[in-house]
Specification:
Strand order of the largest sheet: 6-7-8-3-9-10-12-11
Distance between the termini: 37 Å
Shape: globular
Number of strands: 16
Oligomer: single chain
Radius of gyration: 25 Å
Strand content: 15-25%
Number of helices: 18
Structural class: alpha+beta
Helix content: 25-40%
Length: 506
């Protein structure tokens, strides 16, 4: 976990970052130190809210207005980022460091055609207009887009999520960067497209020799993509080492807990429930005189709560734990507060009965069959998985169930044995309340101007008919059930990480 300003692609040394909130600094990164070597892929992992994206934004000089670096050093390709002027930072982003964001739809300008956006990246580094267009098409081919000339004429909303992400990667690689930062680049992609994007990054990394900082909470992806891994908790690196060694033999209780949360195959006596880590991340700005993980660690004692563990050198890896030899002995924790799963009852009437469900869209004079003769029953107590590649009709089917769009004529849709209105305007409040959805992108589902308390409270009033004290009690019960700490009720979505926003949506 030690680093010096050297010839590495990236050096981060003793970095402290805080956000100014209501007149007080709330510390998010606490003495963060790591490096990314030339040609290396380094994974930064941890749960939502631990500071991963804050570290990425600090590296490219793109912190929010209320964020500031209080101390430390950041060097990209030997250049001191924190000593740069605003013009120098723009030059760094245009030539040396690129970032691929979690949500490609927010990284692309919806009012500008894709080709013009990619070409701009080449123009900035000195290419002429015609050359920029030609190189843009070549880069789209490199990111495995089959018809680049057609894609360049489209707007972002006319592309699938996977194609949007490939466009963003093409833009990031246009400058042949020294450092490529990938911030949860496959979170919104289906399994097939995710595999293609990951393989693409591997191939492009070899072709361009680019160093990669890969930020993710998906440990499986990190294990496949990265040479070394750093485990981040409450803004501090608690373990670091080669990916294979770290995942096979974790030496910090937090890393052990993260690995136990990964779904495993096979049948389990506990109905397939996963282990969990009790408690919550500490609040930003909380005083943590000892180990940052002490409040959630089964091994913690008074020493852990009052004395900060030093970095323990384990050869080619390191950890911050007084009792790292016992890390893998921590007891498993399986949540029981939800009770036993509801048994499936096929003797009853199906909750949802959809028969011969079809949906046809008209676009530019053509008829597009998004759904064709789909029949599905969902029974009480059943969980039905609907899978398929992007564009196969999954979301269209969900929107038809919700009444957001109407199915074609002769489609049958029933709720508990009774006909269901084709659109939401033809359904009663009870029918609307009976079918709810968690959308893929929480940013599009949450009102950015309202607090979490108001967002969830409004749903409880409109759908549940709750008010006053009864609503407030139910609101706290719901947010705690998705492991959302009470302190987040007074904040707006913009102040939350992607994972915390999704918990609000759920």
């Amino acid at each position: 976990m030690s680093a010096q300003l050297t010839g590495n692609a990236l050096d981060v040394v003793d970095l402290d970052v805080a956000y100014r909130i209501r007149g007080h600094d709330r510390q998010v990164l606490r003495g963060l130190t790591f490096n990314v070597r030339q040609g290396e892929s380094y994974g930064l992992v941890g749960e939502s809210g631990c500071g991963k994206s804050t570290a990425a934004f600090a590296i490219v000089g793109y912190l929010a207005r209320n964020g500031r670096v209080r101390q430390g050093q950041i060097s990209v390709a030997g250049r001191d980022v924190l000593a740069m002027s605003a013009a120098d930072v723009r030059d760094l982003r245009s030539k040396s460091a690129s970032m691929v964001y979690q949500d490609p739809s927010r990284a692309l300008n919806p009012s500008i055609r894709v080709g013009k956006q990619i070409a701009e990246a080449y123009v900035i580094v000195g290419a002429s207009g015609d050359e920029a267009t030609t190189r843009s098409e070549e880069m789209l081919r490199k990111v495995q887009i089959a018809d680049p000339s057609s894609v360049m004429q489209r707007y972002p909303h006319q592309l699938s999520g996977g194609m949007q992400q490939r466009v963003v990667i093409a833009m990031a690689l246009a400058k042949d960067p020294t450092l490529l930062i990938l911030d949860e680049p496959t979170t919104g992609l289906d399994a097939t497209v995710e595999a293609e994007v990951l393989e693409l990054v591997l191939n492009l990394r070899q072709e361009f020799g680019t160093s990669v900082l890969f930020i993710s909470h998906n440990l499986g992806v990190i294990a496949k993509m990265c040479d070394r891994v750093g485990v981040l908790y409450a803004g501090k690196l608690v373990e670091e080492g080669p990916a294979r060694a770290l995942f096979d033999d974790p030496q910090h209780p937090y890393t052990v807990g993260l690995l136990r949360c990964i779904p495993r195959g096979g049948q389990r006596k506990d109905h397939g429930r996963l282990d969990t880590i009790p408690g919550f991340l500490p609040s930003p700005g909380a005083e943590l005189p000892g180990c940052v993980y002490a409040d959630r660690c089964a091994l913690a004692d008074d020493r852990c709560r009052t004395e900060e563990p030093p970095v323990v050198d384990l050869g080619n890896r390191s950890t911050r734990c007084f009792y790292h030899e016992r890390a893998q002995s921590i007891p498993r924790v399986i949540p029981t507060e939800l009770g036993e799963p509801t048994p499936m009852d096929r003797a009853a009437v199906p909750i949802i009965h959809a028969e011969a469900m079809s949906k046809t869209f008209k676009q530019a004079g053509h008829r597009i069959h998004a759904l064709s003769d789909v029949s599905v029953d969902v029974w009480p107590g059943e969980t039905l998985g609907l899978v398929g590649e992007s564009g196969s009709g999954k979301t269209t089917f969900a929107r038809v169930l919700l009444g957001i769009i109407a199915p074609d004529e002769n489609s049958t849709l029933e709720l508990t044995g009774k006909p269901l209105g084709s659109t939401i305007g033809k359904r009663s409040r009870n029918e609307i309340r009976a079918i709810q959805i968690v959308f893929q992108n929480p940013d599009s589902a949450l009102n950015q101007r309202h607090t979490v308390r108001r967002i969830v409270g409004r749903a409880l009033t409109r759908l549940g008919g709750l008010r006053g004290k009864e609503r407030d009690e139910r609101l706290v019960e719901l947010t705690r059930s998705v492991r959302l700490d009470d302190r987040y009720l007074s904040v707006r979505p913009a102040s939350l990480s992607g994972g915390l926003k999704q918990r609000v949506a759920i």
